[in-house]
Specification:
The protein has helices at about 1-30, 45-80, 105-115, 150-170, and strands at about 90, 100-105, 120-130, 135-145, 175-180. The chain is of the alpha+beta class and about 190 residues long. It has 2 domains: about 1-40, no CATH class; about 90-180, Dihydrodipicolinate Reductase, domain 2. The strands form 2 sheets. Strands 3-4-5 form a 3-stranded mixed β-sheet, with helices on one face. The chain has a two-stranded antiparallel sheet with strand order 1-2. Strand 1 (about 90) and strand 2 (about 100-105) form a beta hairpin. Helix 3 runs antiparallel to helix 4. The chain starts with a helix and ends in a 9-residue tail after the last strand.
């Protein structure tokens, strides 16, 4: 979730800078504050003059700065597109005298998903462990049948499935987020 906030902050900052630059160009082109800028060419300015006069060293510096910006942008895109906040494996706490126990997050998710999908009124589930491996959080996305009782399903998930996950991970205080949504179909099961 922190990546979303960081992305929003960076994009808002970039948008503000670009809007301020665009507003400055509009103000200069209309002659609102300076009448001398309306008849001049875009290349007729101090920056263009500096590049003409000091181009031997200014162009390489500009290219180097552009490459740094490009590398930062590529790193940002890779982090957004290919990173995940999912936990891959969870090391079950213990004294370690007889070795360590590692619980694969995918196995836990598959087991919990199968268990929850067996509950009355549940159509589908999505289960994942997110956050830091030392302090994960359990996220359950559950789609209910149109005629399901959301309170009963939520209570059963909390008392059974989440309790089973906490026991398997040996984390009695494992935080769990349960997102319930109602599907369009009614339950296929006969009550």
């Amino acid at each position: 979730m922190h990546a979303d906030r960081t992305n929003r902050a960076v994009l808002i900052l970039a948008a503000l800078v670009l809007m301020a630059g665009g507003a400055g160009v509009v103000v200069l082109s209309t002659g609102l504050f300076a009448t001398g800028a309306t008849g001049r060419a875009i290349s007729d300015n101090v920056v263009s003059g500096a590049y003409v006069e000091h181009g031997a060293w200014l162009w390489p510096v500009t290219v180097a700065v552009a490459l740094v910006v490009l590398l930062l942008a590529v790193r940002w895109l890779i982090a957004i597109l290919f990173s995940t906040d999912r936990v891959s494996d969870h090391r079950v706490p213990g004294d370690g005298s007889h070795g360590t126990t590692t619980l694969a997050a995918g196995a836990l998710a598959a087991a919990l998903g199968a268990e929850i999908e067996g509950y009355e009124g549940v159509q589908s589930t999505g289960v994942r462990l997110i956050g830091d491996a030392s302090a994960p959080r359990l996220v359950l996305d559950v789609t209910l049948a149109a005629d399901a009782d959301p309170d009963a399903v939520r209570n059963r998930i909390e008392t059974d499935a989440v309790a089973h996950a906490r026991t398997a991970m040996d984390q009695p205080e494992l935080p769990a987020v349960i997102d319930l949504s109602v599907g369009r179909r009614s339950s296929d099961r006969v009550h």
